[in-house]
Amino acid sequence: MFRALLVALALAAAASTPAAARWPNGARAAVALTYDDALASQLDNAAPALERAGLRGTFFLSSVRREHVARWRALAKKGHELANHSLFHPCPAASYPADPRYTSEAYSPAQMVREIAQQETLLTALDGRRAHGFASPCTINQVNGQDYLEPLRTAGIVTYGRTAVAAEPVDASRLDPMRIPALETPENPSGAQLIAFAERARVNGGLAVYVFHGVGGDYLQTANPAHEALLVWLKAHRRDIWVAPLGEIVAWTKAHP
């Protein structure tokens, strides 16, 4: 009876104790800050905020504007990650109206893989790297009802895929690098909402991947103060949380299974 009580107490203590460090420099959790769609507000607001906090992010680019090419190239030189979000961002017509040629219903998996390969060429011209990570447009990994991630994996064009929507941080030991779950931030979240996701990762030792779109502008917007609040909190918890571009985090998980 007494021995059973001791075992129960030990299990309870383990459940309430943050997970042991498994990340670089003794960190207990990892956070990736990712930004989709190559938006002007990311260059104007998100990137400067990251640099003020001494943090680096991942920017998934599609439909890059000519006038922004030099700015994206400069961002890559500062250590931020540029990554692949396809050329034309095909999504279901019902959720993201576009030219009918560039809706997901108009694509086959082979066409999608070919478009991702073409975007890789443009990204290499921007940052000089031979391979990049990928994020599914609209976080949907199907075109015309067919999954394209397995053909993409077989093609070996990209180094990882950020795809599914997740409400909780994920266990990195079970991570499929071609299907990385992420939190798609809601319209106008509060700083407290954003921080709560990273705090859950800190307690449980997981990986928290954020998906931002507009920051202080554009669409699916996160206000500048809420974005800044998250960055300030992450900077204050650097001993516990490793904040890095998603590609670096994925590389770490592959090297330390």
Notes on the protein architecture:
The chain has a single domain, classed as Glycoside hydrolase/deacetylase (TIM Barrel). The radius of gyration is 19 Å and the shape is globular. α6 runs parallel beside α7 (224-236). β8, α6 and β9 form a beta-alpha-beta unit. The protein starts with a helix and ends with a helix. The chain is built from 8 helices and 10 strands. It has helices spanning 2-16, 40-53, 69-77, 109-127, 149-155, 191-204, 224-236, 246-255, and strands at 29-36, 58-61, 81-84, 134-135, 142-143, 146-147, 161-165, 180-184, 207-212, 241-243.
- Show unreliable segments: 1-19
Q: Tell me the number of helical segments per DSSP (H or I, 4 or more residues long).
A: 8
> What is the average per-residue confidence, as pLDDT, rounded to a whole number?
90
Q: Tell me the domain tally.
A: 1
Give the strand content. 15-25%
- What is the first-to-last residue Cα distance? 38 Å
Taking the sheet with the most strands, its summary is: 8 strands, parallel
Which fold name corresponds to the CATH topology? TIM Barrel
How many strands in all?
10
CATH first level: which class? Alpha Beta
Q: What helical percentage do the residues reach? A: 25-40%
CATH superfamily: Glycoside hydrolase/deacetylase
The arrangement of helices and strands along the chain is HEHEHEHEEEHEEHEHEH
Judging by the overall fold, what is the CATH architecture? Answer: Alpha-Beta Barrel
By secondary-structure content and strand pairing, the structural class works out as alpha/beta
Shape: globular
Radius of gyration: 19 Å
